[in-house]
Specification:
The protein is of the alpha/beta class and 292 residues long. The protein is built from 11 helices and 11 strands. The longest helix is centred in the first third of the chain and has 15 residues. The termini are far apart.
């Protein structure tokens, strides 16, 4: 049945599931998964009713929500923005169109830093550059009381999302606005820098999944002629603001490893350790920065 044929009065929970199956270009399992998420998160309906009460009648309000959200899902709108939620490192983060939707590869970067500092017993200052939703820095902050975390971004709208996540997850991170293109010296040294900066050249935009078009360009794309722009800015920042033998954890573009290694020759790096992500792509790197 087409959603255009729906009478917004009485419809049961199974009939609406059928409409999702008929109209979403997905397998039944995938459409059922999306249907259940919207039922639970936006309509407040326990999805166990699908099995236990198949004749359960949906209210006109719930029918309207389900149809309206299905229309934008058909146009590849991300489910995470629909429900304003994305699980990252075991916690639900608020997300909207002002921030990148967190990816599992980035969880691996966070895990690397946390694992490296499980046994510390003194404060380490951490700064998360280009933080977006704050998922990296807030996850680190709530994992270890000895990691004193600051998160920053150029986008004031992204920082509003960070404030929401800080409050929701009872984090003590410091939140600051910071433009890497202008920054020089900040008011303190940091022991650790971590970042998942924009690293996709505009020329690669046609290779991205269709739903990525709703994510902010500022969080995805590099300047047209310099795919390593933000790594250069991060390393410049580290040259001034990172403690001696400080560590840098980065998510990088696997397509530019050679160019990234060349960039490193311009800085005082005495340790470089690449790590593959769960897809087998060289996407993560840890640097130890040696100041002269």
């Amino acid at each position: 049945m087409s959603y255009m044929d729906v009478k917004k009065n009485i419809m049961n929970i199974i009939e609406m599931r059928g409409i999702y199956r008929d109209n979403l270009s997905l397998t039944n399992n995938q459409s059922d998964f999306i249907y259940k998420i919207i039922l639970k998160e936006l309509c407040g309906i326990d999805t166990i009713k699908i099995a236990l009460e198949p004749n359960f009648n949906l209210s006109p309000e719930s029918v309207n929500i389900l149809i309206q959200k299905m229309k934008i899902i058909i146009d590849d709108y991300p489910i995470d923005y629909i429900i304003n939620k994305k699980n990252f490192y075991g916690n639900d983060f608020y997300v909207d169109e002002n921030v990148l939707i967190p990816r599992p590869e980035t969880e691996e970067l966070v895990d690397w830093l946390i694992d490296d500092h499980l046994d510390i017993d003194n404060k380490k200052r951490v700064i998360d550059l280009c933080t977006g939703s704050g998922c990296i820095g807030i996850s680190i902050d709530i994992s270890n009381i000895y990691l004193d975390v600051t998160i920053c971004d150029i986008s004031t709208q992204a920082l509003k999302v960070c404030e929401i996540n800080k409050k929701n997850l009872n984090s003590s991170v410091k939140i600051i606005e910071l433009d890497l293109n202008l920054v020089s010296k900040v008011n303190q040294k940091y022991d650790i820098i971590i970042s998942n900066p924009p690293y996709i050249p505009p020329s690669e935009s046609n290779r991205l999944d269709k739903n990525v078009k709703y994510e902010p360009d500022i969080a995805l794309f590099t300047p047209k002629n310099n795919p390593l722009h933000f790594y250069e800015k991060i390393l410049d920042f580290a040259s001034i603001n990172l403690s001696k033998n400080g560590k840098i954890y980065l998510e990088i573009n696997p397509n530019f490893i050679k160019e990234f290694n060349q960039l490193l020759t311009n800085y005082s790096i005495n340790h470089v350790n690449f790590r593959d992500d769960f897809r087998g792509k060289k996407r993560l790197v840890k640097l130890i920065f040696k100041h002269e």
